[in-house]
Sequence to fold (720 residues):
Amino acid sequence: MQLRCLAPWCLVWLFYLISSSSASDDVVLADFESESYASWKATGDAFGSGPARGTLPNQMLVSGFKGKGLINSFYGGDASQGTLTSPEFPIERRYIAFLIGGGKSDQLALQLIVDGQVVRSSTGPNDRPGGTEELAPDAWDVSELLGKKGVLRIVDHASGSWGHINVDHIVQTDIQPKGYMLSAQRSFNVTSRYLNLPIKNGGPKRIVTLSIDGKAVVKNEIELADEDADWWAPMEVSPWNGKSLTLQVDRLPEDSKALNLIEPSDALKDAEDLYREPLRGQFHFSPRRGWNNDPNGCVYFNGEYHLFFQHNPYGWGWGNMHWGHAVSKDLVHWEELGDVLAPDDMGPMFSGSAVVDWKDTSGFGQDGQVPLVLIYTAAGNPTVQGIAYSLDGRRFTKYEGNPILQQITGGNRDPKVFWHEPTQQWVMTLYVEWQGRHTIHFFTSPNLKDWTLASVTQGDTTQGRFLFECPDFFELSVDGDPTRKKWVLIAANSDYAIGAFDGKQFVPDATRIQGHRGRGFYAAQSFSDVPDGRRILIGWWQTETKGMPFNQSMTVPLELGLMQTDGGPRMTFLPVRELDNLRSRTHSLKIDSLSPGDANPLKDIQAELVEIQVEFEPGDAKEVLFNIRDVMVEYDVAEQSLSVAGHRVSAPLRDGRQRWTIYCDRIGVEVFACGGLCYIPMPYNTRPDNKKLFFEARGGTATVHSLIVHELRSAWKNDR
Ligand code: FRU
Fold:
């Protein structure tokens, strides 16, 4: 292993101003703190009528500027263009230092012009979706120009993604700023499974390029720690075992230890507590390290459930979208395997689905082994759909004919594919922002490679949330009657429509029906090819995991159904029966009634992970409530409403009774009521020291038909 940061030919030095102690010597050329541009001249519409006061509408959070104002050419969005030119000034210090951010392009620059020539030029850091709006220090050595007259010009001739530039605090100084290394790199002979990378949450994002034989394989934006790491992100390098690999970082402070700190290893670093971390859901899936959002590619294949997921392996926040991968035999005990789809030239790997191609329509099968096919969004510019396949459910190959669907509009994404038996073809639902509306486009294909547009839903305006992102589409029986089937179209916030489908077009007979009733449940996806035909859904659960080396999680897997109600068929969400495998100790409490002042029936139970099953008639009680480790689950009898951790929803009695199933994990509770019509997932961080449970009636007596508390064991192998 060598550290090769200093070869002069591969280094460019940038500088930044470190100390304010020399401020009296410095000449501030512009701080952009006033309302107008004063003597600077603007052309075009990108710069507005004066400096921006921070972030502009529809822009990601702009940070890193000094004071309140800055130059921000996002007036009018990315499309607008223009220039902003300073009056002439004498060059009287050796360095010109400034803060710069925004897009990276020849068309976006802060320029120094001397004698009519551009003699220095800098641009922002972003040339791909994602990225950061943070301004960073940069500087020019202008010693050879001392005594000359210069003009500064800020140019925005770009439109489209990252078509803007941000600049602030331009200063002349004689103090040599601290240096930056550009293209610092370290090479490794790969003999171990991982490179453990030091991560500093909230640190500057560096572009880290992994190259093999001089060819860039993948680029990620990583908050590399210059010294003390908050946590360590494993970069899987086993595919290049025996080869020489180079990690190159676009820009590092000259004294950064980031590259030296990287540790090759077969194990995750600092992982003694893996799966026992204080805020690790014990029966909710979360990645070992990094960020997760949507479940992707949910499928049953070769005896295993596969859960892929939107994964940032190298950051605590969203970014660098990979497909993470975990498998389970029972939907409850998951083993994380490692990422299968990494960002490529077509962009980061956004959400999508998976199918088993039983008839090998794609031709990816081999020797009778049918392929598992992933259908994903490559969210570059353009944003397209691609496929990848695997025969063993472990190694995946991206199809060389990608993309299989060209861009329709920039935001088209999240293909969910299924086999439609009656018409013997594949059907894809795709989210498309189309003519100012959120729509779902239906496509059909004989082979997963060639797709034809079949129909487009009417959708919602882009101010609404209906049918926004991550569609799923499936058939369910009403009240379990196989002769009464309906199609359900559901999108990211889980609101749905019910109707009929002929293989090409969905005709809803009920629409905009509310799905889950809780918080932080999003982008759920159902499993394809489940052997017993159940429709099982799993959602991204936006749980709080501050201080952990991972962030977010999934809900428990949910079995979906349709129940006939007075308003028509409605979806039910119930926990899958496999969760019963987690029960370690069961308390069946024999109480017939519960009155104010009664002893707490749960006083002898102490448990961290809990499942409660209860069935009661409220009688003349005014409230019936549980306190589960501080999580309040309260039923208001007059209102027939249920409040979970302060979040209140309607929960009408059924046959005069309430029947609830409640799961409590470290990071939240999930309450199921009204036969599954009312599913309330609520992120909530329980306190490890409070393992108490209470059950209480207020204002009168409730009749309790059954009360069962199951203590649960962790689903993770590392459980003590
Ligand atoms: C939903 C979503 C998807 C997209 C993915 C990117 O949460 O925005 O539409 O594919 O996340 O991570």
The pocket of beta-D-fructofuranose is lined by residues 293-294, 310, 321, 350-351, 377, 413-414, 469-470, 492, 523 (CB under 6 Å). The chain has four domains: 25-138+151-173, 180-265, 290-575, 578-712. The chain has one helix and 55 strands.
